[in-house]
Amino acid sequence: MPFLAQLPARLWFSLWACGLTLLSGTLLYTVHPMLPGTIAGLLTGVPMSLFTSVLFAAALLLSASFNQSRLFFMLFGAALPWATTAIPALATHFPAELGVRLLDLLPLNLCLISWLGGRGLFTRYSLLIWSFLAIEVGAVMTLASPLGLPLASMLNRLDQPLPLTLPPALTAPLYLWIYAICGSLLLLIALMRKRPTEGISLSILAAAWISRASSLPGDPELYWLAPPLLGIIALMFEAYSIAFIDALTGIPGRRALEDAGRQLGRRYLVAMADVDHFKKFNDTYGHDVGDQVLKMVASRLRSVSAGGRAYRYGGEEFTLLFRHADQPRALAELERLRLLIEHSEFALRADNRPPKAKGKPQRGSGKARQPATVKVTVSMGLATRTPAQKTLAETLKKADQALYKAKQNGRNRIECA
Questions:
Q1: Are 22 and 218 within 8 A, CB to CB?
Q2: The predicted structure's pLDDT at residue 254
Q3: How far apart are CA 375 and CA 369, in angstroms?
């Protein structure tokens, strides 16, 4: 199964933030006493909560600006228990038990946010999250009053082991079981979604577990620095991916090609590749099949060697940029890719497409059965940068002319400018 084949990579991709949280907190605890006197004095002169507050504020602002509502709610939900214990001005005005009990409820909050949080900051789903967090904080703040005594009695049971006969190794407070179960659910969600920001939930859970159980040495504040910082880093990766990576094929897009063009030297080669008869795929089998064709071609072009890199130029056109190869080597590599695509079996899906309007080709109508597989080929044009071409755009124009020549000469071939 494809998911099982990708599981190891997905696992590391999902656990990155959790691992960095534990590593960074431990390193800060270890390195801090070894710093020179002036640096150590500067760090000890400024409250650590100030650094964490700035990071939380920056991460929340960026996640809201980037419309990453799930990450925003995760960080906001983490900031509530942290702020009530770490910021002196808040700690003096709230019950001492408030932060502890919010830490107990944080795993459940993270699961709720992972389920509903990715649908905007001000929608009916986000209103449910805002309401839940507000009710939760209000209910926990009544713990010291007669009204909150039943809730306090129930939450106090979280510090007690499960009322079951278990081996000594499994005897742990109930809140640790909640952390373990919710952590497993969050890891499963991160594995399924495979996005950098999803790992932040595990980073928050790691910092909260350390604060709640004091399981690792050092000030828990050192570990709370990681979630907002890693959230900012994840947002930067998301922004880069949106700007430079083609969403459909997963390879760099035209903006990345233009950026690479500003860093080229005087010698390079450019190839333009175009899927043959691509409009026919869309008209006959539908745009979904056309998208799958583009993904397949991109996956083959991604394997380019000889110092080349593949980009999606637009539509069904791709660009291959060779920085350090000569023409014979680049031509041999293009021929290898052309044959690789030609000999790749592209299986069509079984369901039929609805017919198009009258006078246009039918999309998967019942009149003709779709074949089990279809042949995909590409035509390519290769151009070498010469002193006459001062920019990448001019060399691309030459490669495009060679591509047009390949189309005229029968397709599924390579021509040089």
A1: no
A2: 93
A3: 16
For 277, the enclosing helix (H) or strand (E) is none
Tokens 């080929």 belong to 377
Higher pLDDT residue, 382 or 267? 382
Tally of CA atoms within 13 A in the half-sphere of 41 that contains its CB: 3
What is the pLDDT, as a whole number, of residue 288? 87
Question: Going by DSSP bridges, is the β-strand pair 346-347/308-314 parallel, antiparallel, or unpaired?
Answer: unpaired
pLDDT band for position 170 (cuts 50, 70, 90): low
> Quick one: average pLDDT of 183-195?
85
Query: Position of tokens 């397709």?
Result: 411
Cα–Cα distance, 327 to 381 (Å, whole number): 12
The token pair at 204 is: 């928050």
The DSSP call for residue 145 is S
Residue with tokens 């910082």: 229
**Other beta carbons within 10 Å of 10:** 17
Bridge-based pairing of strands 378-384 and 269-275 is antiparallel
Q: How far is CA 406 from the centre of its chain?
A: 39
Side-chain half-sphere exposure of 306, counting CA atoms within 13 A: 23
Residue whose C-alpha is closest to residue 224's, from 245, 210, 240: 210
Residues 6+ apart with CB under 8 A from 317: 272, 273, 274
Closest among 209, 175, 57 to 201, alpha carbons compared: 209
What rounded mean pLDDT belongs to the chain? 81
Is residue 367 scored above 50 in pLDDT?
no
Quick count: other Cβ atoms within 10 Å of Cβ 32?
15
Q: Are 285 and 370 in contact (CB under 8 A)?
A: yes
What pLDDT shows up at residue 357? 47
Residue 215 has pLDDT above 80, yes or no: no
* Cα radius of gyration rounded to whole Å, the chain: 28
For residues 276 and 378, the answer to whether their CB atoms sit within 8 Å is yes
**Residue 228 is inside which H or E element, if any?**
helix 226-244
> DSSP label at 218?
S
Report how far residue 14's alpha carbon sits from residue 192's, in angstroms, rounded to the nearest whole number.
Answer: 9
User: Which has the closest alpha carbon to 254: 268, 266, 243, 270?
Assistant: 243
What does the alpha-carbon distance between residue 82 and residue 310 come to, in Å, rounded to a whole number? 46
